[in-house]
Amino acid sequence: MDGPLKPISYISGDSEVIGYQAEALPEICNIWLQARQDGVLNEQQADRAQAAEIVMRGLANLGVIALIDEATGYQDTRDRDALQAILDKYLQKEFAAWAKRFPDAFYREIFRLRGWSWNAMSVARPGVVGRYTNDIVYERLAPGILEELQRLNPTHEEGGRARKHHQFLTDDIGHPALAQHLHAVIGLMRASATWEQFKSLLDRAFPKKGTQLQLLLSDD
User: Which residues lie closer than 8 Å to 105 by C-beta, 6 or more apart?
Assistant: First the structure.
């Protein structure tokens, strides 16, 4: 089989792993969406088509940004002023009143994929969940967001933070972007059987942004 659905082998650490080109993800999603349109899915498969639709919506938004990056070479630029302009769109100067921004499904799926016992009545979570959240969400939300949040919301002597990171996100840009990202991520989680499979899909659909600029800003 040729094309993006052709398996490829690569080295991960000391092991050889079989995977697929990044272009395979939208191809697979299109297969599920076409099957749903043709009415050939059973009830148990409906959630997979829904996950495929979520992923495709996310890829559509990212695709426009990627095209701009490729056409302009802007992904190789580190203009701090422009980066700060992006951060200002996502982060508000005064933290917002607390509101629940991370749905239970986000944590429930983490527990399932890690093989942990889930208790809906408890808010206790392993400490590593905070690192997972940084990796899965904030490092992939917008360039430089995690670093700026850690500066605005540093850890105190006891090891915790005074606020939730999401309380610093703006209402017009930051919170909607967070909600959309979480919606897509939860879809990827539900479509995954293992933590490794989820992380592979996540890296393909939403690669970490680091501090590279992902938007072309006007000079206005």
Answer: 186
